[in-house]
Design a protein that fits this description.
mainly alpha; 63% helix; 0% strand
């Protein structure tokens, strides 16, 4: 049973989503950062990270530290099936347009940081997160070869932990 009604990807979707079910299209929409990964002129991971900035700011504003950690773990586990379904639907291994790993795991790298009080941290942490995601320091590069969504998410999880340490160092020395 496919999508009924106006197609949300009309004119910009990859052909692989033709005939996809509603749940597949929903996963692609979430998996591509609400479509940002599909329409980004370049660097879809960077554009697809932008919803993560808002998510991290919301965590900093509304969740106490003790709740940020389980919320981040829950988002990480939720990202795996979303990325798996997106990869299957787009029919491309670790498709760069899939950015749920970037935006859903983004808050990990800002756990406990006062993003809403020290606004300079928002762009600074964004740069740190993106640089470490691109560098893929060991073991991130090696674990990205896990199957489907596990590989897509695992390398970002490792990179986000590196970014968390770097962001806290940045806050310690400049804050």
């Amino acid at each position: 049973m496919g999508w009924k009604g106006k197609d949300p990807y009309e004119g910009q979707r990859p052909e692989a989503t033709l005939g996809a079910s509603f749940s597949q299209r929903l996963c692609v929409w979430l998996g591509t950062g609400f479509g940002l990964g599909l329409v980004a002129p370049c660097a879809p991971g960077t554009f697809g990270s932008l919803p993560g900035v808002a998510l991290a700011c919301a965590f900093a504003a509304w969740l106490p530290l003790w709740a940020q950690v389980p919320a981040c773990l829950a988002l990480t586990l939720l990202a795996v099936p979303i990325c798996t379904m997106s990869e299957r639907t787009l029919k491309k291994k670790d498709d760069g347009r899939i950015t749920a790993d970037e935006w859903m795991l983004y808050p990990i790298a800002t756990i406990g940081l006062p993003l809403t009080q020290a606004l300079w941290l928002i762009p600074a942490t964004f740069v740190v997160i993106r640089v470490l995601d691109v560098l893929k320091l060991p073991p991130a590069r090696q674990i990205q070869y896990l199957p489907e969504g596990w590989g897509i998410v695992a390398d970002d999880f490792a990179s986000q932990l590196y970014a968390l340490a770097a962001n806290w160092a940045l806050w310690h020395f400049l804050g």
